[in-house]
Records
---
Amino acid sequence: MSTGFQYDVFLSHNAKDKPRVRKLAERLKAAGLRVWFDEWIVRPGDMIAPKVDEGLEQSRVLLLCISPTALASGWVALERSTAIHRDPANEGRRFVPLLLEECKLPDTLRRYKYVDFRGDNETAFAELLVPCRAQKSETPPIAISTSTEIAAKQLEPLAVLERDFSAHKGYIRSVAVSNDAKWMASGSDDNTIKIWELDTGKRQTTLEGHPTGVLSVAITPDGSRVLSGSFDKSVRVWDTASGRELAKLGGHTAAARSVVALSDNARALSGGFDKTLRLWDLASRSCLRVIRCGTDDGDEIGHCTVNSAGNHALSGHRNGQIRIWSLESGECLATLKGHSELVRSIQITLDGQYAVSASKDRTVKVWDVEAERCIGTLEGHETNVLCAAISPDNSLVASSGFSDRAVRLWDWKTGTCVQIISEGWHKFTPTSVTFSPDGSRLVLGTGDEDGRICIYRIADVRPTPSVEAARRYVNAKVVLIGEGTAGKTSLAHRLIEDKYVVRDRTHGMNVWRLELPLPVDATLEREALLWDLAGQEDYRLIHQLFLEETAMALLLINPQKDDLFAEAGDWLKALRTAAGKHASRREPARLLIFSQIDVGGMKLSNAKIERFRKQHDFANWLPTSAKTGENCSDHGNQGQPSRLKRLIAESIPWDKLPWTSTPRLLSELKNAVMEMRDKTEIRLLRFSELRQRLEQALRVERFGEADVRTAVTLLANHGLARALKFGDLVLLRPDLLNGYAAAIIRSARAHSDEIGCVLEANIYSPDFDFTGVERLKHRPQQFSL
């Protein structure tokens, strides 16, 4: 937790009071205090709002200069900016009202003892200095653990640095090692490819010809040729022995981002930002096949690889998807979904069964290629993961994080991080990483100005202990679906709080953590999130987008209706559609839940229910009443988990869900954000405020800004938080956006000319119809959302 502040005092004031406040700032500075005063800090060309936010975050005491003009300018706005300093739990900060002129104080300010500065005398100034000066008893700053410190504690590292050397005059984008493990190639932004002896680090030759940076290098299995892809849109073929350019393969209309040499020594595959994969014949220098991956920006290719059989290719895309292609037909065989941002690297095991991908979303994912599903997620990098590599014996994965200056070595089958490589020199910024084919070495290139290469010797014995405390868990998405009058929200509150809550129909969606009776497993934690999706017609279009990756669907039926299953078909179709879009094509497990049976019991015989259950593959069915608690109340079950909770826990296919391995600290941060999200009224806040609140909630933890941003990103990957792209804002309830979207759809449908549109200007109008939609309290926040 960081409690060191750059400024002692932040002076908040109205422009009309500036002459008087300027004198006060000078007096405070003369008294030895570090003062944030706008005239001294904000320079011409600076954006004022971010500067003010930064100053508030870095100041220990907020001095609010009160006058009639200050209050007239809008205390509501001031209220928001002073929230961190006024929080009574935030012991490291102080909020001091300073009365400059007689005025009527708002109720919010009357609670605070103010300093009467109307007379501007020495007594008042002396009183002001007391809270502005840091007290000796204040908690000293706690050092933040870094990856370097963690790595230093490792007594017997798996990878030991053999040598490092300056290799290029720029960013190294790619490294590759020959099949005989005797030499390697590197490609750089300095427009060159260089060949090096692996044992000595001695340069053998330099390949020149690209007019722009080299993005990817590959070596044919027989070692006779080097392939390169470049920003110049070309793929080039080089003779290893002579260094001569053999061919320039043209066709890509944008950068050739990735190039792979196939195992037959005769073909190569390239992938480009032009959204195409191109299969080349190296002998004839001709393009055998062009695979067009799409037309959207999200279809841009970040990386590609080919299995050892040479018949299937995998491509990673800007939209986070991974696609499997037949190189014989050009057909897309499967789409793997899991990453939320650009896939920067993808590698496949020698047997073709598994693949590993690295993404801009800060995660590494493990895939079962044959089953077409994600089986695990490795968390720990604090920024972009640029590259991932698999050891030849399939036991290790190496991943490189550029900005967090770390290479992580993973036992990917258990999710254990067995080593964190973070060299002490200043500009250690790993970009590309690969294992030698014999598994004896790990080679990585860096993004330093002098383009360094580091070569590590890999120990024969694989360590099993993790270098950091980690948590391995499975998260099950449990979704409540059904028509709008089925009582989903009341049942959700009964499951979550064991209370009967009567609400109008849900608008948008709600997400809660659901406690289930689960067996203790020392190697894996299990948890569930309950999603309550509004059932009205206006929302179904939106909510079908949120059915992907559903582990368990609870279809609620109102037993009092004449045609009980009339609308069930629409939801079942939506589940099938969502499953079809997902990589595994596995439909979620589902339970048939009859609600509100307290009203008039069941109108349908058990035999008919059983027929419907079997016909539509429901695991089971259960009658419930949120009002009386029948089959859904823990309290009504003598304090034991309700029958419905037990049924949910037993029916979730836990063994088919992907696991996530995350460092303990990131797990604590994510849980604290979720706690804040679930148990407070905080919905939208600046990142600086979120960090301060986390520091108060997790006083004994050591973390920095990068850790908090990583936690938010990882939550965003699951739709549980959202970092907005402006104002450094974090939305803790992304589900609120669905209510806004539904209101817009409703307005478009109600258009007088039935043309299905709404004017953008109308959406920002204060009288726009947001009936039934949960809104943020402050008008500026509403406008932002």
---
Amino acid sequence: MTMANKNYNSPRPLLPGEEPSDRSRCKNRKRAILIALLMLAVAPQFALAQDDEEAPQGRVWGDYTVHQSFEFGGRNVDGNGNQQLYDTLVNLKSGPRLLGEDLSMRSNTHMGGLFDNLYLSSFGFGGDPNDVARLRLEKNKWYNFVGLYRRDENFFDFNLFANPLNLNQGIGTALQVSPGGFNPTTMPWYANSPHLQDITRQMGDFNLTLFPQSAIRFRLGYARNNNAGRLDTTLEAPIRTIMTEYDQSRSDRYQFGVDIRPMERTTISFDQFYEHDKVDPNFRDNNLSFTDSVLGTRVDIGIPFPPSGCTIVPGVTFTPTTPSGVNVLVTNSKCNIGMFSFSRSGRVRTGIPTSQLSLQSNYFRKLDMTASGTYSSGSSNFLNYQEFANNRNNTNTGVTLLDGTSHTDRVSGNADLGLTYHFAPSWSVSDKFRWLDWRNPGNSNQTGFTCSGAAGPTLTLATAGCTTPSSSNLYDTVLAEKTFANTAKVNWAPSRRLSAYLGYRYGRRELTGALQGSSPTLNSYYLVQNGVTAPLSTNNALPANLNITRINENTALGGVVLRPTNAWRVNADMELLSADNAFTNISPRHQQRLRANTTYKVNRWASVNGGVHFIETRNDFAESVNAAFNPANPNLFPTTPTPANPNTVPPAYGHKDHWRYYTLGASLHPDRRVGFDFGWTYLDQQFNSATCVPSTGLTVQATPATCNGFQSGGLPLLLNYQERTNTGFASLAVRPTHQVALSAGYDITSTAGHNNWLLPGGSDGSGLLLMTSDIYGNSPPLAGNPITPCPAASTTVPGVGCGFAGPFPDAPLSQALNWHKPTAGIAIDVAKGLTLKGNYSYYDYNEKETLGLPIVTLPRNLHANIETMSLKYAF
């Protein structure tokens, strides 16, 4: 495939349209097409010679009837474009495959030896990203066994995800002419996301039930989840750069359970689980993309895009490439930043025992009852944590070590009780109560060390001399939640054509958080300022100085099922929620949810269906949060001029969003020779959310007033996001003869939208935020950088700088794309039990919004042709 190389350390990834020097893949594709044509040419001859016998009925082997099938084949993949995104979305490769295997053995008399029934199936082995094998064994009255093995290759590398080069058009254009000729194509984040994932996940689940038909039965289970591969992430300090971990983690889960049937239609179950998790984080610096011009060794200067970092200093330049294809940092006394090496490692061990007791009964004629309770007490230890930084700075002594350990407990209990009473043939009432109580107390002990070794490319932790403690911090934390909810319903079903229900749900949630230590700070993850601080010094289970946030939720419920005719069914339900508080600004305080679906069977071979699903969410935090901080002006956005803030902006509601889904489908199958299916889904989602963004830059519009009270001093902005997505599919199946089956299909996803930051009341009238910057997009303009001439994508502000749209609107966020996937297939029964299959798929990913934008990151467009040939033998 002529796709870009996904190797971080490649001097320059292949660009779209380039081809590798090895042409063997093209030869393989031609050879595969030739073989496919020959097989399709001779297959009809076999098919014509075959009689109209039915599929094999299986063979008798002793007391068993045996069915088997194997499907062997191969896949040929050819494409061009972005290899990373292809592996993220498709990840199919060329090569031979075991596309499917099935084996079933069924005892005719239920008197088999070790088993009465056996079923074994698998698919994907030989190179596909998803492999599955399943085994089921049964012995009448003695045991049931189910084993499942799965292997998944989880690859993610969308290079716009958390990428520092997500720049708007103006800044992207300026990069191309930045000082020193900076070339983004030589950077590792040009082709790859700084948060890449390339993990192979192997999972096994094994469950055995003993005496499954007895009044007392036992259950044993074991599950393993093993992850191995590569993870990339970013480091924010001492410099912002890329870290790589070759991950090794494993989770083992053991289960023992017993079911007792003390009376008719009643089962009591007890389960004991134990889970052990093992994680060994080991991150290393993977951004040694520059060469020091003095030392001649690799160095990491972080994630620079000029003119930031060293390039803000006049006279400091980057040499774009050397013969080895690596950027050279030409340093002087004014610029000596970066790291020679960095590492972060440790060991995490977690143990979680869990006990569960449950009851299910409909022993009483009019009463159905379910109940369960679970208790878990686990602990996690982070041992031998070490963070070693070999910094390169002006004094050449920037070597640091951070050492520490941490311990966290999780104590959790939950229970639920459900009752349904049928007091009349068409009437019933139900009630379900749920309770949850968990807490996570923990502590962390961190020690910083001063290292005597001088920073340098050959320095290691063993030779750094990090023996003198320089700082010590001990933290005690707690996060806890108490939740209960009760749902009551009245159900009415007067006939098979009508049923309905009305209900009410009350919920109470209470979240507690605190942080104590040598640097006590309240945990602000859940809007501390919006909670009620309660010094619970007498509570022995939790420390004092806690922050507690309480929420009361009330929800009205309703639903109806209609069947006007035997062929027509309509069902709908709604939920109306109101809460007096929220944990986060975007959590709902008011929510409306409506679902409606219908199916209509036109006749025996044709049916249509449709549906809608609406979700509307609101949170007026702009008033409810700020009122406690600024009673004179309770709105987050300043609406009353003051001497300090003479300007005003329109008041903000807070947060509003909606999701609206529309679906339509049809199925037409007039006979066994022809079938057609169609489906379409439309999604409209929109977010409008007020926020205060810290900003030291100037806006092109009139200088706005800063936010009031809560998060005061920030720039008042509105996030305006909208996405519209159309998804559709169509499939056609035709069997022109008894031996030949044809299929064709088409899938499409098309999206469009925008992502804008609005400055309410901007003097230009548009509302779009424009920031005053230098010609490279730095706001405020950096010292030494020119402010003229401004790029074409910006607005000239005389004597001040250039007005760039910000922060980074539609630049690009991939709200506008087309995803096409047409397919075609053929299956020919060439002999009794022998079927020749061929399938063709075309994948096309095209981002509409990147047209005309400067190439700052590797374009993500791709095209791929996938041909699959196989032979299935059933006997």
---
Amino acid sequence: MAAGAVVPSPPTLAADQLGFFRWGRIAGKVLVTTDGGDWVFLSEPEFAELLAGEIRDGHPRFAQLQTGGFLREGLDLDALATRLTRRIQHVARGPELHVVTMTRRGDGRDAPSAAPDARTDLDRETAEKIVEVALQSTSPSVSFQLQGHAGEPLLNVDGVRHLVEFARATNKRAAGKTLGVTLVSNLSRMTEETAEWLVANEVAIRTWLDGPAELHDGNRKWTVAGAHADVVRWIEWFDRRYRELGRDPDVWHVDARVTTTRRTLSAWREVVDEYVARGMRSIHLRPLGPLGFDAEAWQTIGYTAEEYVAFYERAFGYIVELNRRGVHLAEATASMFLNKILSSGDPATGEIRSPCLAGTSEVAYDADGRVFPGDEARRVDAFGDPLFALGHVRELTIADVVRHPTVRAIAAASLLDAQPMCADCWNKLLRVQGAHGGRPHALRPAGERERPRDDRDLRTLDDRDRPASLDGCGDPLRPAPRGGRSARHFTLSEKPWQIGRPMC
């Protein structure tokens, strides 16, 4: 919020008695936040007392504000530094997530693209080099996410098996890290033999479930999802197998994602009900970005930011209603933000980290061995712009990746402390990185972005439509017109945040 937007009463500022904090009005209260992750809602009179230096020992709010670092008196700088360090520890931790594209072949809906091709599959030598580079990370834990560019890594099932077995053997022999592997599959090529091998080798499964059969299968023209019947059958198979082995269902279950197209917006209840019916424990209602769709396709399946937010409010309200009835279903976006608000750390999700995880916490490898600072960067390359390519895995170490000028540029661009207005905003504690905005912002083409980001999507429902001048966080979202330019037509040579979908 702009410093002059509110005149405190009394009109005095006891700066020498205050710690460093940011503040803004939300839902009829004044929210004050610190870089250490502490926050508190104050009434208007309490906020005036804070600014005037009238909150002292004996005041009902004194202990809370002193502990949170809002007051100079008794300020524990060591504790504040510890909390701040915990929130940004991902910067120095080292790349943890390694996204590996196992094949660039299609999923079999187009017969020619499904044919084996050594030029499009990850070969054994390159897979081994990827593992060796990934295990060089200073992170104590390393996770491999195995995917296919067109949706199905199991088109290269031998490559999947070799990478997993080589990674486990190499880690056991040399690295000693906590190792995790996730297969991102549309399940169209799953067999019981492969499924048993995945279970035995503790490979987690992630897939797509867009709702009931009619909606899910209707979306397949635009997505990489498998047929609804196959997805449901294999979800049930894996869940049954995990139970038979006595595995913890909170850890071992199939993770599914929703591809939210225009058809999804009016079917919010049906989508949620489908996840409940399939026994899913979480649902991720993320918006679709235009990266990879031409203007005609985006006009058919895309939507505005306002339309998405309205859909999310209805769906999330219904999920909360089901929770109150005893149904166990979490919404991933809400969970991520609540984790950021209520915990002392910073969530693993790159979209709400500052700086984002591209290159510093996430590295992506194409099937030909080229390396990128995250999978979104690899996708930009797949659509014809090699701006974010870092080199080939045979020529790089993990230190080369982290220190690469492109990775440094992305980190600087996504650091909220370096963004005008963002650095002073009360919402810095909670918001996504200022360089390229959050998912709702992804619905807006680069040509329409007058500034990197606003905070409307993070306000309460009652506060969302208040004038932006009340909190100094910029103009309201202007949605992209239907049929606007696709991301592949954007100019990426100057500003990496001007793509149609966030990089991280």
---
Amino acid sequence: MQSATALLRGNLPAEPNSFIGRERDLAELARLLGDVRALTLSGPGGIGKTRLAIRLARNVIADGAGTGEDTEAAEGSGAPGARGPRDDLDEAWLVELADWRGQTAQHVAATIGVREEPGVPLAQTLAEALRSRHMLLILDTCEHQVGDCATLVQLLLARCPWLRIVATSREPLRVRGETVWRVPPLDLPPERADGTGLGTHEAVRLFAARAAGARPGFALTEDNVASVARLCRTLDGIPLGIELAAARVRALSVEQIADRLRGRFQLLNSGDRTAPLRQQTLRATVDWSYELLDEPEQMLLRRLAVFSGWNLDMAEQVCSDTLSSDGGIPADAVLGLLISLIDKSLVVLDGEAAGDARYRLLDTIREYAAERLAAAGEQSHLSLRHRDCILALVEDTTRGMFNRGEPAWPVRRATFHRGIAEYGNFRIALATSLAHGHAEEGLRLCAGLRNMWVPHGDAREAAIWFDRFLAQGSGEVSPRVRGRALACRAEIAFDLQEYDTLVRSAQDSLALSRAHDDDFTVPVALRVLGQAAARAGRLVDAAAYVDEAITAAELSGNDWEAGLTLAAKAAIAVRQGKLKSAQRAYEAALEVLSDNNHWGIAMVESGMGTLARARGDDKMAMRYLEDAMEIFRELDAWPEIARCQSGIGWIAIAGGELDLAHQSLAEGLRLNQMCGQRLGIARGLEAFAALAVARQQPEQAAQLAGAACQLRDSLGLSTGVGPKTEQVLEFARERLSAATAAALFAEGREMTVEDATRYALGSQPLLSIPASTGATRRAPSPLTPREHEIVLLITQGLSNREIADELVISPATAARHVANILAKLGFTSRTQVASWATRHEPRDRTLPRGCTRGRGSSAGQYAHRNT
């Protein structure tokens, strides 16, 4: 089975059709990515920014196995030792921001799979998670929240030395180190060029390719190539305009299209000319395409603007009219109209989800359609229809997902993945409810989405939406809806470790639910209170809450909750040392959930694996954890997979299966690193320390134990040297000496998280030299050889211009090297670099050619000379 980490290498979408032209642009952008770490593709809508960014990412990642030339420009890249992007980038992620209105960091983290850490700002967790990754991050459509994007980009560039960011925006982000690249139109033939060579120009090639897709058999000929060239010039080489025009060859000749467009632009030129020329050109082209539609097509196109993406059923529900005699759209006409809009390049087919074809509008077309919807006076009505459609979808899904019997698990699993595809629509529906003050509908949406948000790692987003609607007051919300929402909010608070909010929400939920006879919600609130008490160490209180919850679940007929409460009872019994009681409770939970949602089965099996380990039955523990992990893989539940792999690794260590232990622990450690779970990383380092003990490697064991201990301290979770760590240190003392073991442990505490992780995984050997030799082990440096030369020049007090003179490079290149050194070392001043060099640079390192030692040899002298 493919490892989870192999699947976490990017999310670039498949290209909907062939990519035409821009070969020179792509070559220049790839070269730029070797020199800069923040690249913004800027330009008007329809110019092709997103498509270009995705193709650039594909090219860069595809070239990752190649080698580049050792050029001066490549030395200045943001990656240690890189010669260009192809040498070090191994993953690319696309974050689409067009429909996002929250914090940029939240959406980036959710897209990449980084989970929030309790008590830590999400942006900080994200930066730590990406610090060691060789990633190309595409932030698409930044213009509507450019300030928040800029803040995040600045943080990530400062904290993640191997990261490169490509943004697409109609305006620059204006962050330090940003290079803005204006996306040009496609290459056009000269005004008076004849037929020879016209077909080689990018704009003409794009028209020909799309026209052939719209009308099979279309080809450039001596008779039409001049008209195509003239048409492309009329459209200023804007890709979207060319594609819209090419879609019309099904019904019009090239000459007819050109003549109609010329008339449109003559009308445009007589009107308002304040907008940029290319923006006017595109607007006129979209206007022309829209006005060529018949009235039902126009109506459907503008109504589709309420969606983030959709399938046929959703379009029929939201966009059709019950009575079509007044010129509306009957439901059975939607499919035909949709096909017509696809043929005209106004709607894009966007893959499949749960067996249904998905559709979307390009951002520029969607903006235009939304304007038309508002002008038609339909925006509020259609937004509410969209919200009602999504609410019905969510509640129908919830009813079918968490009951015994049908549907079968493959259907439920597909529904879960389909829900992920609807995230944009969920947010639009929530925003609509908030804007209209519809707190009841908003809370119903939140309650239905709770079991989508939590497995997907979006507990913080869930908390934000719950709190917004709960704050709107209870006057317009039924007690039953509010009580259920409060119980869900308590569950979210448990995941976020917000225990005051948990207790308040759960107690308010209990009071409302009991007062209004909502027996279905009571066990949820009681279970969460029990789990919170158990986490606080109040096991007697926890058991009492959970026993009451079990009784309430049985009385209400809530099978899903009955299974969860039994599993909670078992977990508490394990903590109490009542292993037989725990076994009975887990078996009962598994029976109740056996034909229910398999997420619950996986959670129970994971707990049974822990119990089997406690009972010394490693074979059964391994089986339970592997079974649970199989389900978690089906749901892309990365942190849960990591926990299972950790358990398997510990079992394998105990059984002497050290290769299996390394394989399992390695995947768990990588997943925790990718998801930004530093507590999970600390636990993984502890496990690798135990593995080193089993492999009779006392140096590595002591160092990894020190690294794990330091990471726990940095998270405020220090418990001192625990039993596992003490066992590791005792082993090291016996094999080495007390002094050597202590020194190695101290060295481990000095490691960065990235160094310790690489060391554990075996990709970065940090073999200590025995203390008796008097030598000191030096950790690998993140700097390139040229950057080490520049560090030495910085210690001599040289300015950027003086460094450039010494190394015979340009001042701009010298400044870029200095900026990269600061980023890689996490410093903000050259004084810090000079201080670092006194500890890390060998005293006998040769200075660069032409340098002398007489220019000031201390950081103090440098600080005095260069402020």
